[in-house]
Here is the input.
Amino acid sequence: MGKVVVEMAEEEGMETVVVDPEGEIRSINQVIQTVDCVVDFSSPQGTREAVDFCVEKGIPLVSGTTGFDPDEMFKGPSEKIPILYAPNFSPGVNLLFFLLKNIPEGMRGFFHPALLEIHHSAKKDKPSGTAKRFAGIMNIDDVFSIRGGDEPGIHTIYLIGEGETLEITHRARSRRIFARGAIEGAKWIQGKGSGLYSMEDVWNMKR
Here is the structure.
């Protein structure tokens, strides 16, 4: 994922410093260049190191890493620096978050919600961070995960009612949709005060 972010950022003329465990700079602590923002797609340990680096340097952090409790990871540091966290940076997924949050309360009782998510075989966390967010919004207990192939991500929410079923699917066809959102977030967070932000803030989707 990080490689796609770098590719798209450089397409826009941005200068990048790449941290890669198998590359020239293997740890964020080896970065000596002045940077305006850290964009993190790594691992829970990598995110912790990115948080510490950003707090020390006083710079913003944009993170899309999953597999940990965001409140536990970011609550303290976000009192010192601006942090943008999202389990999914896709415009479509964030629009779906917004739409599902705004289902009228009186209609929720008509349906039993369930969720199926499918991702590539290299994805370690199960269920995905996006699935957990959907589950939190819709109070979903029945969450099913499949890992295989090179699938970027499919999330289907089922609303199962008496005599009818709704299926709402988001299918990612390219990882560039996630990179685009992360880059937009990195631009947006410049100059913001300390705090923990989401893509709802970036796209002004809060009500």
User: Anything to note?
Assistant: The CA atoms of residues 132 and 170 lie 15 Å apart. The chain has eight helices and eight strands. The domain at 2-88+176-202 is CATH 3.40.50.720 (Rossmann fold). The mean pLDDT is 95.
